[in-house]
Design a protein that fits this description.
- With 360 residues, the protein is an all-alpha fold.
- The protein has a two-stranded antiparallel ribbon.
- Strand 1 and strand 2 form a beta hairpin.
- Helix 4 packs antiparallel against helix 10, helix 8 runs parallel beside helix 15 and helix 11 crosses helix 12.
- The chain is globular.
Length: 360
Amino acid sequence: MFHALLTPLSSVFGPFNLFHYISVRCFGALLTSLLICFVIGPHVIGWLKRHQGYGQPIRDDGPVRHVLTKRGTPTMGGSMILLSTLPSVLLWVDVSNLYVWITIGVMLAFACIGGMDDYHKIKQLSHRGLRGRTRLLLESAVVVAAAFVLYSYTDYSSELLFPFFKDISLDIGLWSIPFMVLVITGSANGVNLTDGLDGLAIVPLMFCLACFLVIAWVVGNVVLSSYLQLTYVAESGELAVLCAAMIGACLGFLWYNAPPAMVFMGDMGALSLGSALGCIAVIAKHEFVLVIVGGVFVLETVSVIVQVLSYKLTGRRVFLMAPLHHHYEQKGWQEATIVIRFWIISAILTLLGLASLKIR
């Protein structure tokens, strides 16, 4: 909104030209969403406590200390992140940018799916929400709709690029749609599976968003993308502003989610943020970099897949408990130790992902 209203007036008042720069609007978006989250946080948490009764249902077969310390904590804190992000985006982004609206559309649709899942858990007083197949079907339908808009109204190509290699690419044609479904739903559910300890998912998520803030900014700049020998994606730079707004909201949410958590983001938050991250990676043509920087989410997802397959095929479990963070809890690691070490791993992977921009 500021971009559309104030930039044209720069000829009258020179400082208004600052709103043309993505860097300025990224800073403004981050700060705005952070402040909104700080202000609305106590009110949202109070409302969730009043309307959720026993709060987030805790799985009975999980670590004993979870049942003792986390039961009664309200969930659906993702609503706080969304309520902080959306006004900030509307204020600071170029509202004519279709990539931004596609990403927001995916984000809100996944938030609705996650919200239904959270509501079902609370209503049934069970950690089991919607059936897995039902949820995946809904998520896939959303991504297919987003793919249709991308192909119909933008210059999106089906070319698949590989990090660290400048001359290797693959045009996968219509296979790009199921690939897009895999990336976005995988990102969403990976974040969701990781969100099992206080602060465990939100910090790696901020690292990933920071990385893709840089990537979106670079591939959306014809000079920088040419210098780094990256595929130029016209107008994708506005996604950097969206990333900044989400980082600010996540940072504000961490204030209330830090141990001991006052609120959980729930499926509403995890699915919406993870899907937005996946959508940005798809638009910026850096899907494989997402696998690198989101390595923590990948490991958590793979641990669940391996555990399920191993148990069904052999009757044995590979891990003491899945996802992976519960395995280390069962081994006796303290929650803070697991969380901080996962943060460190995520920071290292983020640096590796950023390095892929230059090393090619």
